Write the structure tokens for this entry.
Amino acid sequence: MTAYTGTRHLVRLILRRDRVVLPIWVLLLAVLPASYAGAYAELYPTAAERAAYLAGTASNPSIVALLGPVYGDSIGALTVQRAGLLALIAGLASVLTVVRHTRTEEEAGRRELLGATVLGRYAGLTAALLVTYAANVLLGLLVAAGLVAAGLPGAGSVLFGAGVALTGIVFATVGGLTAQLTESAAGARGIGLGVLGLAFVLRLGGDAGASGGTGGSAEWLSWLSPLGWAARGRAYADERWWVLLLPVLFSVLVALVAYPVSVRRDLGAGVLPSRLGPATAGAGLAGPIGLAWRLHRGQLLGWTVGFGLLGLVLGGAADAAGQAVEGNQQLAEILSRLGGSSALAEAYLGGTLSLTGLAAAGYGIQAALRARAEEVAGRAEPLLATAVSRSRWLVAHLIFALLGPAVVLAVAGLATGLAYGLSVGDVGRELPRLLGAGLAQVPAAWVLAGLAALLVGWLPRLSGVAWAVLAACLLLGQLGAVLKLNQWALNLSPFTHTPQVLSPDWSVTPLLALSALTAALLALSLKTFQTRNIPTP
Amino acid sequence: METPIEVSGLVKTFGRTRALDGLDLTVRTGEVHGFLGPNGAGKSTTIRALLGLLRTDAGVVRLLGGDPWRDAVALHRRLAYVPGDVTLWPNLSGGEVIDLLGRMRGGLDPARRAELLDSFELDPRKKGRAYSKGNRQKVGLVAALASDAELLILDEPTSGLDPLMEEVFQSWVRRAKADGRTVLLSSHILAEVEALCDRVTIIRNGRDVETGTLTELRHLRRTSIEAELTGPADGLGQLAGVHDLRVDGHRVRFDVENAALDAALRKLTDIGVRSLVSQPPTLEQLFLRHYQADQVRS
């Protein structure tokens, strides 16, 4: 067993490094299913109401495509469907965790440091897999415990928890394999997430033709996708425990490939050859903006495609969501007081677009903080020693922090408008309206990007605080009304001020005010960046 | 013509640490100036102040006749800088980085670029993440040496280069000097400075402790000798210029000033030599010897 020597130490190292991140994602995901179960029990207490919900919403093709099939109208079955994306998120977290502790370490050269100590050939991969497997098992246990605590039957709860955990384990193993393939961690992540995306598209395609629990003609596609397996255990219906064998077998197969590959290659090398670049720079790579384009374009493309797909799915589901709410007397009354029953779908669209705005703000923050990352990595110094002013260098990054969110929100608005327009048969009207609604989110997202920029200039060591502010805005938006917070507290979030462009009367003033605030933040950012030490460690 | 680099009384503090403590440094036009000091002495901090990247707390810094903080962009057009640890963008090829830096500096000489790539044996098509430490350093050097900058600021540029490439580097610095360019070469390797520099400034704990031509700094140039003799090492300790003599049976170890080297070797061969290793002392050893005493006294 010398190949595994040192695994224990590496496990402890990973646990030490991830002592914050790992518990957070496990706990956040673990509470979701139980809270869905509680919400269903409250919203649809009777079997008749649930049957209506099942007929009206849960078996709606676009909902089934997005979340997965539903087997029956029990609270458990509805909860399992509603938590359908849980497996996807667990898979995502697992791929990222495994790559982070394998290929990223190797690329950074830290593995070499450890590799020179008493460490078996398999120790690195095994430690990363063990930790991620354990996190998924813990997640599964917590999910099951939470569902039992919410009053659902034990068998179904365990089956669903196991399904989620095993899906995470499948993608952890996939991450372990992709980490062997490329030299760069970004490449390994890309391939891993690509596999995850493919699995999602397969499941989406397989479930799209289905409605409710009756599989469509293409259901075999869902059986090909690891993301389709968790639901197909039919928890809380006629439990099919043998389905759990699929992820186990798949993981074993992937591991059987990953392990031999991991020892047949050199440290630092990948299986796929790294491509050579051009020997000379193209005409575009001539200054800070050309460089920033090279550094940001991959992310811009990724976010644009992601927001486009998201918009299509959300827009496509809007009409159905509106009808579903209409079926629920109580909820419809609440919503109609807010905007009239005709505006139900639009209230849904407004809500989802505001979440999209928050995500776009996250992108803006990420792009602004890229400047700080460049500085810390030592890549700003040689550029600032050329005939490039500090302002030009910082502005080049900030352009992407501003244009990026605007572009992706425009795309999200267009995609939502297209899909919604098609479903209600009026693209000509809905497309421009929803484009407008998407763009209305831009100034609020800019404020957060501007704040991140100010931190980069003024308090670089604290620039990560921008993420905390984003989290606070998310909480204010999601929980503010529920917790009946003071209006002044809600007003702290720029997103509170974004007008509901889809409702007939709205004012452009807050958008101008938010834009002016952004301009002030950016001006301060550039000014403070002008006078500080570079690099500030 | 103005003096390329003029620093006097420079003070820079980071929190409680006094990184630079009244540093003076003058580099004259057309010379290769060694900036010598152990790790952590303040060489990189000085260079960053020269580049206008750090705010100084006191003292005067003049770069090419201007104020490096205020006139950074205009001055940077006339200089090229290689940091001690070149970091590259993982997804850009070495050639792209060379061209990018060159263009941002105001152009580079394509013929010289090709010649540099050839002599440094650098493949410009590799991506940043694929280069070793030494090759990343070469990317920075090619970008700087291919420019027409009148002042080259090189911060420990040869760290990670093998001895062969070190030779190549030295020939290019000599060529830069022949072209009339001024070079500030920071280093902690005495031999490198000896091979290239007209004048040297030695820095320790943020302060210049000595500056002058190599001849003026001759007292620093010693050789460490380790020998196994056939007889007892009598009389070695009495020789002028022999320091730190340690005798262990027939084995001796000592440092000798280069002026007294001939006499010391004669003495050794008189006794009879079984084996002999001689090497230049490390800078740290020199510093220990020369400046620790000063510090204790002051």
Chain A has two domains: 2-264, 288-530. Residues 2-264 of chain A form one domain. The first helix of chain A runs from residue 7 to 17.
